[in-house]
Amino acid sequence: MDKKDDMCRDDNEERGLESSSSPLQGSHAASHNGAGAPSASKGGDEHMNGSRERMQVAGSEERSSLHGEAAEGGGGRDALPSYTPSPDYDSCRSLIYSYFNQITMGCGTVYCTNRNCFSCPEGPRLDPTSAALLAVKLAQSTTHFLCAGAAVTIPESLQWTEASSTSAELVPLKKLLQAATSAESNVSTQLELADAIKRCLSSSESASWSFLKNGRPCRANEESSGIDFDAVSEAFAAMAKCRKPIAMVNGEGALTDSIVNDMVALAFEGLLSKLAPPPAGTGTSNKLEHLRMFVVLLLWPGLMEPEFYNSIFKKVCSSVNQLKQDHRDILQRWLEEVEEEAFREIVVAFQQFITIYVNEFRCIDDHVASATKVLKILWGSNQSRTRVSYKEFYNDAINELVDFTEDFARWKDTQRCPFSFCDHPFVLDPSTKSKLLQLDANNQMRTQIRSALFRSIFGGNECPYLILKVRRENLIRDTLVQISAQQDGNETFLKKPLKVVFKGEEGIDEGGVQKEFFQLIVRQMFDLNYGMFTYDDDSRTFWFSATALENAREFNLIGKVFGLAIYNSVILDVHFPMVVYKKLMGFQPCLLDLKDCNPGLARGLQSLLDFDGDVEEVFARSFVVDYEEFGVMKTHELKPGGEEISVTNENRKEYVDLYVKYLLEESIAQQFSAFAEGFHEVCGGPALRMFIPEELELLICGNPTLDFHALEEVTSTEDGYTRDHPVILNFWTVVHSMTIEEKKKLLFFCTGSDRSPIKGLGSMTFVISRNGPDSERLPTAHTCFNHLLLPEYSSLEKLRRCLMTAINNAEGFGLM
């Protein structure tokens, strides 16, 4: 090498120009000194003839105009000091090749400002011929436009000619992966591919910019990440295919482990060490670009592999949780773009991690807490755009193994215990939430009992229980009067344990009497003759009567009844549409909710929205609602002057929205407000807010499935009966032959309620005892304890006759 070449090399080093040679590039030099020119000649000629097979960090979209020509005049990177190119032929040719690489591949710097570089968002997107012409022109210039660094070049051995692809920016990556999984693959090919992937995933910027929509660099915003999720899935799927025998090592044995997947894991591990929260002074747009990599990481299937839990999974959780709240909110919105299958895999990965750790260590450590917090982001994303059932967020290990008495205590002591599953109720099933609600209720009951006893010591005469003495024939009026009287001056009296007494009847309330009380009062309140509710035959549900004569006190009372039932662990036989529970939990109703309570009307409104013709001419509607009140038709305007406003194609969406709002909110505002106030007065609070509407319905109404085979499995026998005793076998033969209504009557006779607990009849305690020898005595029951007393009847038919007589005459405490 002569002195002139040394000077050129030193000049390049001062400008930070680096060689781009790598195992994938061979000796294709990025500098413009003469040393590397001979070995670069062949590769350079191939590129100048149109081959651009490269693993790109950004997109590969081509443009027809020479943006680089305009860039020379300014507006890009500040020009470096001018120099005189070496007259040496090899050096000039190497410089042209370097410019060609820069124009077609880029320098690898995210947001490069050199408009003659592919990495610049405003840089050239040219076909090979146009790129070559621009490279020659730049090489002839007296101004230096060469960036430091170069992109990775795919070696000839890894080139793949299949052109089909749905993601233009991933074509080069797919070629690498296709070569690695082909029959001709060898260890060397795998190593070269692994090195290329390592380069692609060497930084959050290069990795996230590899998967952008349309293959074009673009800024992320708070509503959209700009990520091509299909491209990410395709890339990871191709990498996963590398997990197979790929080569013979020195003729002995097959290489079965995947070098490629291990390199992906190592690259992600390195990335996570760089994914600390952006510095405080970082611009907003750069912070958003920084978040892209978190989405890519969450989509990586390797998160499900336990071998990567320590090196990657835990670090992903930690890094996400270190983000500021506004950035976590943005990440949550971005995850709404993930489609169902990919989203479910992310949820499963986190559920699997939590399950393994809870089962193995039987404690709630920082790693379980961290993973649960990330799962909360996924839950929020799914709430905004549903892709999986809310039930897929329930975690069986948590619900079965965690001590929720301790967890509830941690929840109440947030200063000393920052994490509790009660703050992440989406992982808790309705049964667990019901236990927590009951735990909260019991704590409040004990507080009220202690307060009442304390006041009685100092001269008061306060009962520690809420006692209702009622007559069956005047149930609603007696209940309303007594609750109103006891509530006077005591806002917390409803928090006391409930005891019910039916006047003129025997029976001490240990739970069974109050069960019957709730069943009877609900039945009377929902009687159509009482006028508080209407009934829809299509949906088989009740709705608040918009023309009810009762004042707010009655609706407030039934709200209190619902609350007292929850508070005292009693299940009710009510049939409300789901929208009632949504409104109780603060959700706004929509047309979908109307389908649940008035499907016929909802279908009509939907047909109006879907109609392709002239809505005004065919439907001839205006912005009014017609309804009947005591036999007289009346009209309500949905908006001022609505009677004169026709419904058209342009305003039909507004019409439907106003119609639904009137029916589900405005027309029953007074009735529902009183009902909700009474309900929340009894059981409202943080514990109730753990429930979603579907779970609240289960809490109030129980499980709609009556599986008596499951009940048979958990039933215990006493006083001489065994599971295989003839009377017990006959009893279950009779039960399994009953109709649904008869089974409900039997359940009511034995337990005081015809509803199943949240987890089904298999979760009940049920006992059958021998009640003397064969006789004409009817069966009896202790409903407080789910205890059936059954004489030793001599035949199946006699047992059937006596049992049916008993369950058909079950009200009151003559038989129960």
Automatic annotation (TrEMBL):
Work out whether the entry's keyword set contains Cytoplasm.
yes
Q: Identify the GO cellular component terms for this protein.
A: cytoplasm
Please list the residue ranges that the record marks as compositionally biased, kind Low complexity: 26-41
Q: Which InterPro entries match?
A: AZUL, AZUL_sf, E3A/B/C-like, HECT_dom, Hect_E3_ubiquitin_ligase
- What Enzyme Commission number does this protein have? 2.3.2.26
Among Pfam families, the record links this protein to: AZUL (PF16558), HECT (PF00632)
User: EC top class, in one word?
Assistant: transferase
> Principal localization?
cytoplasm
Catalytic activity from the UniProt record:
S-ubiquitinyl-[E2 ubiquitin-conjugating enzyme]-L-cysteine + [acceptor protein]-L-lysine = [E2 ubiquitin-conjugating enzyme]-L-cysteine + N(6)-ubiquitinyl-[acceptor protein]-L-lysine
PROSITE patterns documented for this protein: HECT
Locations listed in the record: Cytoplasm
GO MF annotation terms: ubiquitin protein ligase activity
Concerning SUPFAM superfamilies, the annotation shows: Hect, E3 ligase catalytic domain
Which residues lie in Basic and acidic residues bias regions? 1-17, 43-70
Q: Name one GO biological process term.
A: protein polyubiquitination
Outline the segment boundaries, as ranges, of region: Disordered: 1-83
Q: Which UniProt keywords apply?
A: Cytoplasm, Transferase, Ubl conjugation pathway
Q: Which residues form the active site?
A: C784 (glycyl thioester intermediate)
The protein depicted here goes by the name HECT-type E3 ubiquitin transferase
